[in-house]
Design goal:
Strands 3-2-1-4-5-7-6 form a seven-stranded mixed beta sheet. Helix content is 38%, strand content 10%. It is α/β, with parallel strands linked by helices. The longest helix is centred in the first third of the chain and has 19 residues. It contains 14 helices and seven strands. Helix 3 crosses helix 5. The chain has a single domain, classed as 3-Layer(aba) Sandwich (Rossmann fold).
């Protein structure tokens, strides 16, 4: 996969709570979130953006939300890593999440875990997007995942934002993957705040096996709420991989606080217990038709440009 800091090509875009499809709160579309008055600011130069990002990171670090949210991430990642065979030596002093203290890191800097982030938005001008980026930097630090092991992509990134991300030590992807990233055996955290449903479906399709999904953690829209919000026939027709797997994952919501309601609403950490995956019928894994969304309305992503 080509990586660099060239301007990217476009695509756009709780213990679990039970609710009826008709009463489920609709997740705002990406253009609606960007249009909200106080969230939008004039774009500043790189130094000003970095200063605002540091301020957002410090605000998050000192919040009650942060300690609880980071604990949720480390617990899920600890469970996911703990179930994998053959990683003990590579992880060194991996501590199971149940024994982690509030400030104790999950693993050493030699951790093989990588991170892929889709859909941050314009963090130079959006308070919400900046807080989401700041939280990613904090959980990378908390789990001791090197920033060099984190790749980011959003078609709306400006050249200045690409430069800021590179200066932070992150790798900016130059190609639209449409979420179709195969982890190729690498334990991976996907950070996808408020992305379109098709992106999650594509990600699941790209890793549609017991071995791959057992190595995946997704921080993003609640998949259980997606299931509850959509009509069953729409979910199975347009997003079949979400429909097939949603009952066989474990989902833990990030805490909700008034200060970060717009930033992390409907956001959960998902991981895939190996025993649950192994208990699914074999023919479920044999069906691997690539999603095409030909008749899907309200897709919320821009497709990869071809030709």
């Amino acid at each position: 996969m080509a990586a660099g800091v060239a301007a990217p090509e476009p695509w756009s875009a709780v213990a679990p709570r039970k609710k009826t499809k008709s009463s489920a709160r609709r997740r705002p579309r990406r253009d609606e979130r960007r249009a909200r008055g106080p969230q939008a600011e004039p774009e500043a130069d790189g130094e000003a953006v970095l200063r605002r990002l540091r301020e957002a990171e410090e605000d998050l670090r000192n919040s009650d939300f942060c300690s609880s949210a980071l604990e949720t991430v480390t617990q899920c990642l600890g469970k996911q890593l703990g179930q994998l065979q053959g990683l003990t030596e590579a992880l060194g002093r991996l501590a199971l999440s149940s024994s982690l203290g509030p400030e104790e890191p999950l693993a050493t800097s030699t951790s093989p875990v990588t991170c892929v982030c889709y859909g941050l938005g314009n963090f130079a001008t959006s308070v919400t997007a900046r807080s989401q980026l700041a939280f990613m930097l904090l959980f990378l630090e908390r789990c001791q995942i090197p920033r060099s092991h984190c790749q980011v992509y959003d078609p709306v990134f400006s050249r200045a934002e690409v430069a800021v991300l590179a200066s932070l030590g992150l790798t900016v992807l130059s190609e639209n993957e449409e979420g179709k990233r195969s982890i190729q055996g690498q334990p991976t955290v996907f950070y996808m705040p408020h992305c379109g449903t098709a992106l999650y479906n594509n990600l699941l399709w790209s890793n549609w096996s017991v071995d791959a999904l057992s190595r995946v953690v997704i921080i993003g829209n609640s998949l259980q709420c997606i299931e509850e919000r959509l009509l069953t026939k729409i979910l199975h027709k347009n997003y079949p991989y979400i429909a097939k797997i949603v009952k066989s994952l474990e989902e833990f919501p990030l805490p909700q606080t008034p200060r970060y309601t717009d930033t992390f609403n409907d956001t959960s950490v998902h991981w895939f217990p190996l025993l649950k995956l192994q208990g699914l019928p074999g023919d479920l894994w044999a069906s691997r038709e690539e999603p095409d969304y030909q008749d899907c309305e309200d897709l919320e992503i821009i497709r990869k440009q071809t030709g």
